[in-house]
From TrEMBL:
This is Uncharacterized protein. Coiled coil: none annotated. WD repeats lie at residues 18-50, 65-98. It comes from the Eukaryota. PROSITE patterns: WD_REPEATS_2, WD_REPEATS_REGION. The keyword Repeat applies. InterPro entries: WD40/YVTN_repeat-like_dom_sf, WD40_repeat_dom_sf, WD40_rpt. SMART domains: WD40 (SM00320). Keywords: Repeat, WD repeat. SUPFAM superfamilies: WD40 repeat-like (SSF50978). PANTHER family: F-BOX AND WD REPEAT DOMAIN CONTAINING 7, WD40 REPEAT PROTEIN. Gene3D superfamilies: YVTN repeat-like/Quinoprotein amine dehydrogenase.
Amino acid sequence: MGIPPALERGANRVDAPTRAHYGRVFDVAFCPWDESLIASAGEDEAARLWLDAGSGSGVSSYGVCRGHKDEVVRVSWHPTSKILATASADGSVGVWRVAQPGMEASATTHDPDSGTTALVDKLEGHPDQVYGCIFVGDGDGGGPMLATAAGTDLHLWDLERVTVLSKVGHEPIPVEAGSERWEPGFLFSLASDGGARNLLASACSDGAVRVFAHDSKASTAETVATLPVHSGALGCATTFLSGGDVLASMSTDGTVVFTDVRTMTPMTKVTSPCPTMGCCAVPSGGDGSIGSWFAMCGRDGIIRAIDVEGSSAPKVLNQATDHPVPLLCVAADHSGRRIAAAGKAPETPQGTNGLGTLGSGGTSGFGGVGILGARKAPNAAGIILWDAAGSS
């Protein structure tokens, strides 16, 4: 399918928010139904929306999704309907109506952010922090279905009825925990194959990758494979490649494993030169279909990309710096022209906190607590955006 534009021609860094969230940014996602919108999830208990006007003119604030009581760790766009899901460490998932740019009043005329966002539903009752949410088609009633991952359980929600229709748990693999902070078998990610086989995959704290099959019409989900491909390490991210035939999984020790979904057997293992946290598929066909390119990010702040089919040499999107900012997440748009990444805040000199004016909403609602119960004054983390437009 060729090389994605952002990787083939190189990409220019766009003027993007350097203070997108107070604290860390855990997730970024391009909107599939309006390429100008980007969502981000942050430690400041909010998801934020950004408008990329294109032509290198920069990125501006578009709205804020606020209402969670703890950090927001995942954002997921519906592929066609104008809604966004936000997953939080408070054990809930917010479902938000988002107005298309130019039609801001369509969300709600009473919203404090110019009507760009409105909370539609709040999905509560998860047993633990929610580290995955993704739309998986429509149910038998015609409403959207949402899969969520919390603790060791996968939940399948009918948003029309705001009801859990299926819940899938599992027994953890008995291994030495990669981190004492997490229970064995904790689901840390949730990726969809785009409907190719109706599969979902999660990287887990016991080093396994769990694969689930879902049937939205029948309102069912089940575990179809448990792959112990990251033994002794903490799984952190998953994504599907090559039309859903390949599953890429990562652990925080920098190991990446590519698994053939048709046989559920590992194909290739590669090791990043630094600990890794985030990954994504990078489309190359221009239609948003799942291609063979895989991008990852980690502690050294560099975006590395691999062609899982091996027809092209690996690529590096940006160069190392003397003061790298660790990246926790990376995303590509449907054309493979733009790539966004975010993570921790850059270190600031002693005596300052690096705070500046956020796009909309400031720090209101941030309840971070530090040592001995003192409120945190976290540094602000930004979003990095690369665009191939205009690159030669």
